[in-house]
Amino acid sequence: MRQEETPQYRPVKDAHKTLGLWSIRRALTFAFTAAVVSLVAAWFLLSWLLGSPPHAKPKPLETKDLLELLKLVFALVAGVGALVALVTAYRRQRVDEAAGERAERVQAHVEYGQAVELLGHDKAAVRLGGLYSLERLAQDHPYYRQTVTDVVCSYLRMPFQAPPANHGDQDQQSANHTPRDPTAADTAWQELQVRLTAQRLLKRHLTTTDPRNHPSTYWDGLHIDLTGAHLIDFDFTNCHSTNATFSNTRFSGDAGFGGARFGGDAGFGGAQFSGNVRFGGAQFSGNVRFDGAQFSGNVRFDGAQFGGDAGFGGAQFSGNAGFDGAQFSGNAWFSAVRFGRNAGFGGVQFGGDAGFGGVQFGGNARFDGAQFSGYAGFDGAQFSGNAWFSEARFGGNARFDEAQFSGDAGFDGARFGGDAGFSAAQFSGYTRFSGAQFSGDAGFDGAQFVREPEFADATASYPNDAHIWPSPWCAQVVTSDMARLVRGS
Known about the structure:
The chain is α/β, with parallel strands linked by helices and 489 residues long. Helix content is 30%, strand content 20%. It comes from Actinomadura citrea.
């Protein structure tokens, strides 16, 4: 928890330095000097005007002229007095404003200390009051917003034992003969309410749907650190933050990150998601890491945008995982990821390299219409269900060496802009490359097919002796630079 330093203030005699003002002696000296210089200049100007032309004999001043001159002198003197009064009034106003601001800061610091102290109280109701006090303080004083956010995150990072699912159901507990400690269960349930309130506090002040017109409740530019926290039904939908860390965080229940925007890096390494997870439409401007994360429910990344590198290495998805329409501007690494059920990457755009080496797809894997701008690596990947790459676009080299396809594999209409490697790959079901286009080298050396593959209407660059096609398919020349795959005898 961040420790707030006690405000330090200058002595009263040096307060003008804090305010950026001159001392009163220096200010009055300057004012009097300026006034005297103005009087002298005015006197010489009047003398020159009244005595011109210089060679003419000056005329004696009449009484009315003397009176006018005296009026002018009195006006100048009054102007000097007004200047002094103005300087004094300005300084008094600035000192009063500074004193008020100082008193307000001191009071805010006192309120902050009291609110933080309330969070350590034994009673949940008092802790709730501390949260609301911190929220009000940060709303009124923007310079406290990051500090209050750090305090709330620190509270959520503290150890927490969730109450039993059947808390409050006496009949059910009696039927199951489950021993129950009413005091401990009630305490855990009350603590849960405090934590849910803390989560809603973060949600309320990080939510904005219009980047150009934020609501008054939005706190801009906050860093979120919930490392190792235990979050319940966490809702981060449409929330905007800079760096956000959820490493080793435990998410009980559903977790929503739809439409969230991460201005900096985002870390989910080692996070555990027990329910459904939604990242649809989320935008990651920096790097994002999901290394070692575990997903037990369904996962949706539909339309998510990754501006930096995205690492999912070692993540485990026990339920369905959907990345349909996601955009990865940087590199995307899914090495050694385990998908327990279906994995959808339909229409995904990989702006950099995409690594799926050693990935285990427990269900169907859909990459229909996916676009790989860089290298696409599926070396050693295991597809337990069907694998669909229909109309996929591979801008760079695509490697499926030693990949295992236990179900059907469809590459109909796929375009391989670079080399396509399927060396020692194993195809147990139906395999189709109908209409596929191979612009680089195609290597099927050592590939094993339980059923004869289909390459009808597939084309390849020609002449190219580096092509290795599975039997009984071979290349038939069509033009000087293009060949068509035909089935040999």
